[in-house]
């Protein structure tokens, strides 16, 4: 019979065990081994049944066992130590508290998904895992972050396979009362709520759940409340579900409702109000509109409020392709704002203008969330050096006339939270080598000097550790594979072969990620005979562990999964290659440490960063990857291999896959597999072990989320907080008025004449050439602009590369036509074809970049030709 109503019955812990509740409700347990060990000792069987979730564990412990533990002095000592350690972690000074003055009092971090732990399944892939690692690292460093997201009642889907290998999706219902969450409540005990106005006089209401991630509160908005109508209750039904209006409402709730939730949380708890708002991808971009509306309600006009909001906003883009960005029909967006809907005090046309693709190649009827995010943020970044370059190219239309390298999008390369992803065995080895505190500092704060001691670990210890981790993975794979085949309809009598799947002494390669086409799950199958030879090689065999989910609406991705599964089902190779369904955090934490090589073969440059290889590297796993994302930035032959790419513009996609698959097979046959099995005098693979050592010591400190968050603090959060403080209502109004005046006057700005002291078309290295430039500024003054000389080597089409920029200075009074003379030196510091040009840019001390307004004036062709622009 089916129940008509569901309750969550919480256990009543004896007084001596009350601290267990606090430990379970703070998600620090998900990356703190000692706390997890404590919970496991409560009931090893219950811990396994709960999937390592303390809340579920405590809900199933028998009262007799609780009474027994309440009288167990040894357990109570461990409990007291764990509770004291958590208290010290939450209240003591950390890295952030030791920095100079001027840091943000608080930062609000918005993301559509957060991967904190498998016990809180609110993530689909890399974006959410990155967001979870960002929060954990901020907690470890003491950064006063507030996370903001949505609570999806079905989370992301669970994946199983049909008998013929087709992906099947399941959406289990999540009860918030059974998750490590507490509901945010008003002082009178009623649930705290946020509300959005919808067209037709309707409303979208949401309650606020709190997940405590160490020191960082994570606010999750949940629309499944009785006050909502059925359609509105389903807004937070599932992650990336639906489309059109459903997705728009999710993003309005995340952005606008999220700001209101932050205000509510700060009011109720006394937490400092954020000075910086960080938008993790465009999904939360509407947060800027809510903040503009707040300032307009206090008396500022729209333009002044826009400048104040931009100063304190950071926008991070994660996608390298326009197709990965949410875009909505402008009429749909327009209907949800204005007098009859949300933000009634703001002109709908001003809202629409922030997101419209009003640039060459854009679609003028589409509202682009990333474009709005960039227009609402004074600071923006990609997530690797290569991705920063790709982003500058992709969004260059927003800054017309500027070279892509001048587009104001920087990069902060992603990192991963080491305590979450490093195997306990690796942690214990580090603690023995460094001491517990220094090992913790190495994994959280980073710094290469803390990782240098890896050199002191013996070859034997490293090799035994790798063997242990590989053996654990083999056992994990067999267990998961057996469960998968049972779900596919197989009986135990058919599954005896699983006991022989994988070998703890065979080179093990991992490949696990989402399954969009550009990640090329099946590139390894390009030449099946050759792959089979690699798997079954008599002297240098390899084995492959593969996992990944295709989006529920992506039948092409599902076909790739099925193709891989069918190959792995072949009795000739099924002991050497496996596909594990339902890839998630729990599986990943077993998979990364147990692999010897992590494979990544995306279409370059479509991998924004790709952090799975970082997690593997922290466990001593070597990377074998296309030079994309972070690997393009940090690859060295000392600790991995680069798969050559055939990414020329004229290469046919099928031909490209053939070439790159052949390069992958060559690397595996000739270098990777032989290197693993080659033995030195002591019977150990000396060269391989040295690569593991180099991976840990050289890559370890770079790939940390602690390094990433420290970069965000220094390079983005601190400047944003300073801009936020400087942009008071008066200064924001002054800046908005100045921008309006400059935009109005810019059509009258021109470079009218350029001359140099150069006497010919050649000059000697080290020569200094004098420049004289006459410019017209119209109604602007020299204080409003900067006149620059831009010089450097030129190509065959006279494009300047690796440019040097030198500001020129005004001299004398305006001439009879009102033009001003600017002068300055031009140093010829490079040989070969050399060129220069002159340009005029707006200049104001509160601009974060000279390109911020997207305005510049350059010489006309006639002026350029008369000036002799190129020296050869």
From TrEMBL:
Cofactors: pyridoxal 5'-phosphate
Listed InterPro entries: Agluc_phsphrylas (IPR011834), Glyco_trans_35 (IPR000811), Glycogen/Maltodextrin_Phosph (IPR052182), Glycogen_phosphorylase_DUF3417 (IPR024517), Pyridoxal_P_attach_site (IPR035090)
Residues recorded with modification N6-(pyridoxal phosphate)lysine: 615
Catalysed reactions, semicolon-separated: [(1->4)-alpha-D-glucosyl](n) + phosphate = [(1->4)-alpha-D-glucosyl](n-1) + alpha-D-glucose 1-phosphate
Assigned EC number: 2.4.1.1
Keyword Cytoplasm recorded: no
UniProt keyword annotations, A-Z: Allosteric enzyme, Carbohydrate metabolism, Glycosyltransferase, Pyridoxal phosphate, Transferase
Enzyme class label: transferase
PROSITE patterns, A to Z: PHOSPHORYLASE
Domain DUF3417: 13-120
Matching Pfam families: DUF3417, Phosphorylase
Any GO molecular function: glycogen phosphorylase activity
Gene Ontology BP term (one): carbohydrate metabolic process
Family annotation (SUPFAM superfamilies): UDP-Glycosyltransferase/glycogen phosphorylase (SSF53756)
UniProt KW Transferase keyword: yes
Functional note: Phosphorylase is an important allosteric enzyme in carbohydrate metabolism. Enzymes from different sources differ in their regulatory mechanisms and in their natural substrates. However, all known phosphorylases share catalytic and structural properties.
Family assignment from sequence similarity: Belongs to the glycogen phosphorylase family.
Protein name: glycogen phosphorylase
Taxonomic lineage from the root: Bacteria, Bacillati, Actinomycetota, Actinomycetes, Kitasatosporales
